[in-house]
Amino acid sequence: MAGMTQAAPVPIVALDSPALARSLALMDELGDLCRYYKIGSELFTTAGPDAVFQVQARGAQVMLDLKFHDIPNTVAGAVSVASAFGASIVTVHAAGGEAMLRAAAEAAGEECRIFAVTLLTSLDGPAAAAVWGRDRVDVGREVVRLATLARDGGAAGVVASGSEIEVVKAALGRDLKVLVPGVRLAGSPAGDQRRIVTPGEARRLGADYVVLGRTVTAAPDRREAMARVLEELETRTED
Predict the structure, then answer these.
(1) S-S: 188 plus which of 74, 100, 132, 215, CB 3.0-4.6 Å?
(2) Catalytic residue numbers, as ranges
(3) CB-facing half-sphere around the CA of 8: CA atoms within 13 A
(4) 104 close to 115: Cβ distance less than 8 angstroms
């Protein structure tokens, strides 16, 4: 019964607009309903470090979701800079290998944590098999394999879909945190995500963090949508 003892997952809203002003307006609209935001490639490419500084200036923490994947020295340098910016979480790809993961974890320092992306939620088994050049891929086993690599490389957590929370926790324990993207309120379009869960399901399954994108940011009433998410995340349910 993961949801009976697990604290409510930390909600992180994705600032996916390329316009910094629009992203900051979203933050102002949500106000005290959210204090953690994800800055991804689109916004960072447009606004650069100023996006991080502006989000922090509004009293929020930053997940810098740039999914670094390069040689260890290059990734370590990038993570060191991101940590100096004040990012609380920085993402890298687990497929970069243990040496790259360890370099990233060491460069992150005490205040920044590395989360390793296992298998993108836009991929299902057949799509992953095509990427890896295999006849078939068992998504759960592949995620656990990459999560093990991440743990051994010193990552604080992994990025995985809600479908893999339980297998990751069962295989690697509760110390390795699981951050879940692709979280949607019931009735919200799946978009380009293949493996999605509701906020309530993520809580019950044992997620530590959830990333909320279009289910909040594209909602007609974004504060109301965020309030619904928070209600689901705070509700304890039995398996």
Answers:
(1) 215
(2) 67
(3) 13
(4) no
pLDDT beyond 70 at 187: no
Side-chain half-sphere exposure of 207, counting CA atoms within 13 A? 30
* Residue that is written with structure tokens 């607009």 in the block: 17
**Which string of b and e fits 81-109 if b means at least 16 CB within 10 Å?**
ebbebbbbbbbbbbbbebebbbbbbebbe
pLDDT digit string, tens, across residues 67-104: 999 999 999 999 999 999 999 999 999 999 999 999 99
d(CA 132, CA 99): 20
What was the pLDDT predicted at 224? 97
Domain locations along the chain = 2-234
Residue 101 contacts residue 149 (beta carbons within 8 Å):
yes
Tally of residues, the chain: 239
- 2-234: CATH class: alpha beta
- Phi-psi region at 45: left, alpha or beta (left = phi > 0; alpha = psi -120 to 50): alpha
- How much is the pLDDT for 195? 59
Determine the 3-state secondary structure of 52 from DSSP: helix
Tell how far CA 137 is from the center of its chain.
Answer: 22
- Alpha-carbon distance 144 to 106, whole Å? 23
- Residue 47: per-residue pLDDT: 97
For residue 239, pLDDT over 90 is answered with no
Please state whether the predicted TM-score (pTM) of the whole model is above 0.70: yes
State the pLDDT at residue 3: 41
